[in-house]
């Protein structure tokens, strides 16, 4: 099946937003083995949109539109497609009801143009919009299937996950499932991971193996197509085993929504343990990551951002003599920060980071030199030395993730 | 002038990356008044790329390509365009020299395929690549101008800023400059700002007025086209004056790279003042924003992430009686946190945030209720109560920015 994606909206052509909807849809289509051949962005203009629709109908089996389903004069995707395929529009009662309810609940008078949002192409398959007003729809015409979806990501993403993907799966010639395992790695770069798995990646067919780098972590998605989930699982397992035999020491978790901080918080909850942190060069990044997880207050005691030597000394009792001889960026300081923040805040684990984030060296120490300390109740404290490359933002981001990764490692040993 | 942007790369069609290059180029073209009518993404495939080139040549005066200039077999933008326009490729000596030097400096043997990167269309205008190997180029053919640029943003952005924009400016029929003022606002939403300026925005022509929302802040760009910068400035000033008479109280700074934390750090430096923070619900977000500014160690003393009552009590001496009667999320707690963190860390200003980020209420207080405290040396402490909407991430982000905004306001009064 040949697919293409058409985003409608002048705001994209003005550069006010990036076309992340096309990226999201491309990922989803790749997962079910549908090839995407073109992305197009066109403005809110009937003539040019029609030109794009004609071209797409002639070359693609599946044409997915995003945007242009709203209430204003500018929103003209379904009206223009209706003209092209020669099918009229009709009000979808469920969508109308939802729109009326929306205004009723908020106590706002509904303006007449909102009714336009409940119009769908006659005879189309309607996708209900659980997070907004305009429904999505799909209609088959000649040899093409046209799918129309709302532009706001908060409405588009759940509609695609819940309704559009099952619909598209049914369209596929052979009934098959696409079953994935997502492995999460840290402490290894994307290119180093790829190099270690190059022969597997090059001969990949079923399952496919795709590495992605995201927010300083690396994710590997193994996807099998098969008649059933069980058959898919059977195809994945030997490949996964081979992968883990080569890079298993860097894997810390599985699944799409399992960043290092998610896994750490969930492991702490399971084990009824707590954590505290002392951050110098990461400046609050570790605390921010941990507290971004809902319910983290159960396990996170708190943290100290000890940006100056005085704070390291006064709040966390690192002796002045150590700060003078070893320096703030040193193994000894990292050790004491981790131990003292753990004790003072009464946590199971204390993690600390001290280093040089740049742009300039500090204490004669080079940009990128970072010490991470992990103290745990009843265990000797571990300090790791890192030499990180990149700019300030990258050094901070990666140092924070390393600290979480080491905390997870320590937890396994405890 | 009618322009369109063509991004070449299968990784875009697989959803591995978003087409942020098209967004960037669209913004740059909008700044000089060039209208962008289409974005297209096509894979690394000669036949489909040729199809896209033919279509673009027929409908646009300016066609900008990104990607496909690299050393591998997959990179075929210039080869395919050369075929279309009937012009050969030749080695650009400066580019070749740069490539050879690149390998020499790193002590790596250059593989033969790297020579391909120095090839340019014969007779084209060459843009040197200061941050990579493949040069960009522009060539006029029939009535169209084709511009070919590298895909990696780290190479593309500086090439566009330094070489491509001046080249395009020269192409414009009338010699004119585009001169902008960027105003930064906080404490007002994008739609509320737009509403207050609606009549100005609707009748805008020269200068244009464009509001953008970004990372919980709102930016307004006023852009004039004129023969000289002075004339542009003269067009902008009366409009800016009118805007500030309506929403001036929300403006905190000017310029593209002046987020609230940038302005706050730079003002603190100027005045030789320091700051410290006590964060409960923002969980380190304020410290992270401040320390993201290079050189912030001059003004940032440090912070305490007081996620639990024990930490509020032990490290920042909020009496248990207050935590029991008023609660952790209260005006009084915010006040004491701000005052005590300022005193303990010896800073000019102490800022505190305590609130309910959600997803669940806390102490019977609703999600979104947030108190921000600002203590300053020699001034009475101010506490602001906020009712923020949105999900956890948005509440944290906006509460952190409000705290910075109030700190800037307090600084003005001091």
From TrEMBL, chains A, B:
MoaB/Mog domain residues are 4-170
Record's signal peptide: none
Looking up CDD domains in the UniProt record yields: cinA
Q: Which SUPFAM superfamilies match?
A: CinA-like (SSF142433), Molybdenum cofactor biosynthesis proteins (SSF53218)
Which ranges does the record mark as transmembrane? none
Domain of life according to the entry: Bacteria
One Pfam family for this entry, by name?
CinA
User: Which family does the UniProt entry place this protein in?
Assistant: Belongs to the CinA family.
Protein name as it appears in the record: Putative competence-damage inducible protein
Q: Which organism is it from?
A: Brevibacillus porteri
């Amino acid at each position: 099946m040949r697919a293409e994606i058409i985003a409608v909206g002048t705001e994209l052509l003005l550069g006010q937003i990036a076309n992340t909807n096309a990226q999201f849809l491309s990922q989803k289509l790749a997962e079910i083995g549908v090839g995407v051949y073109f992305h197009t962005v066109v403005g809110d203009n009937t003539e040019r949109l029609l030109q794009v629709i004609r071209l797409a109908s002639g070359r693609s089996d599946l044409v997915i539109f995003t945007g242009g389903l709203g209430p204003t004069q500018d929103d003209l995707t379904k009206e223009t497609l209706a003209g092209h395929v020669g099918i009229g529009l009709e009000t979808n009662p469920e969508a109308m009801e939802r729109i009326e309810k929306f205004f009723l609940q908020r106590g706002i008078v509904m303006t007449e143009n909102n009714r336009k949002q409940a119009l769908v192409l006659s005879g189309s398959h309607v996708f209900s919009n659980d997070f907004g007003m305009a429904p999505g729809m799909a209609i088959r015409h000649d040899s093409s299937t046209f799918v129309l979806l709302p532009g706001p990501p908060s409405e588009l993403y759940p509609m695609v996950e819940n309704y559009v993907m099952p619909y598209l799966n049914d369209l596929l010639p052979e009934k098959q499932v696409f079953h994935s395992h997502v492995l999460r790695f840290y402490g290894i770069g994307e290119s180093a991971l790829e190099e270690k798995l190059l022969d597997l990646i090059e001969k990949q067919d079923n399952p496919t193996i795709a590495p992605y780098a995201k927010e300083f972590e690396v994710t590997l998605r193994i996807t099998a197509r098969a008649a059933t989930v069980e058959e898919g699982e059977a195809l994945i397992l030997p490949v996964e085993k081979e992968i883990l035999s080569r890079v298993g020491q860097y894997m810390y978790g599985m699944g799409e929504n399992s960043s290092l901080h998610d896994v750490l918080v969930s492991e702490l909850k399971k084990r009824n343990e707590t954590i505290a942190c002392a951050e110098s060069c990461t400046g609050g990044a570790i605390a921010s990551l941990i507290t971004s997880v809902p319910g983290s207050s159960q396990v996170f005691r708190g943290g100290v951002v000890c940006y100056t030597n005085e704070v390291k000394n006064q709040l966390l009792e690192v002796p002045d003599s150590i700060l003078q001889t070893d320096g703030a960026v040193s193994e000894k300081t990292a050790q004491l920060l981790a131990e003292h923040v753990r004790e003072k805040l009464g946590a199971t684990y204390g993690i600390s980071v001290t280093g040089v984030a740049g742009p300039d060296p500090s204490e004669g120490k080079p940009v990128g030199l970072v010490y991470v300390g992990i103290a745990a109740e009843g265990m000797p404290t571990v300090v790791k030395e890192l030499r990180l490359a990149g700019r300030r933002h990258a050094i901070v981001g990666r140092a924070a993730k390393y600290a979480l990764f080491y905390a997870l490692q320590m937890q396994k040993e405890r």
